[in-house]
Design brief:
Radius of gyration: 16 Å
Distance between the termini: 31 Å
Mean pLDDT: 94
Strand content: 15-25%
Largest sheet: 5 strands, parallel
Shape: globular
Oligomer: single chain
Order of helices and strands: HEEEEHHEEEHHEHE
Number of helices: 6
Length: 201
């Protein structure tokens, strides 16, 4: 079972019998939405129960999806994983499990970056998918092999791509894992994992 499968299974247990499982999430492209500095790709706006969040990535899926559409499913494509991630995000927001579902303003980028750099200082770091803004930065020791790292950084791209998802799912429990940005707020909070988004809204 992948980490994404586990999060969906936990969500199913949380909402079954509450009536929430009868509702649908609406996903649509949002080219003007604020963008987290640690992600790439198109932004999807997802709405559920009056709660709105954003998920960025290379699979800008659109449509209206019942929450139950992700239960018990095997996610074999990037589009399916992106939709599941978006539905997890908005539903977690509706349930008040995740509060920071939208990226911060650009004016906050520098402060966020410096705080993250301080958090990562003195540690070896592996990124499950490329994070261009962190590459080659003095003070951030990014290594090429996950076995050499003591911190794993997870962005939505890592969960949408098969190789990244497998790596994240196999990460040793004794090692630190940090989920970056609002796109992964839902999945991280449902699983009880560390989430980094100090200025998200």
């Amino acid at each position: 079972m992948t980490l994404l499968d586990e999060a969906v299974a936990r969500l199913e247990k949380m909402i079954t019998g509450t009536g929430c499982e009868d509702a649908s999430a609406v996903l649509q492209r949002a080219p003007d939405a604020p963008r987290c500095q640690y992600v790439r790709g198109a932004c999807i706006e997802v709405c559920f129960g009056g709660k709105t969040g954003h998920v960025a990535g290379d699979y800008p899926v659109q449509g209206t999806f019942p929450v139950t559409s992700i239960f018990g499913k095997e996610f074999t494509t990037g589009e399916q994983r992106a939709a599941a991630l978006a539905i997890l995000n908005a539903t977690a927001g509706f349930l008040s499990l995740a509060r920071k579902l939208t990226a911060c303003e650009r004016a906050r980028y520098t402060g966020c970056f410096q705080e993250l750099k301080k958090t990562l200082g003195g540690h070896t770091v592996f990124t499950a998918a490329p994070i261009p803004v962190l590459m080659g930065v003095p003070g951030i020791d990014i290594v090429d092999e996950p076995d050499s790292a003591d911190i794993l950084l997870v962005t939505p791209a890592a969960l949408m791509q098969e190789e990244g998802l497998v790596l994240v799912s196999a990460w040793p429990a004794q090692k630190r894992i940090i989920f970056l940005g609002p796109s992964v707020a839902g999945v991280s909070q449902i699983l009880g994992k560390e989430h980094w988004c100090p200025y998200g809204r």
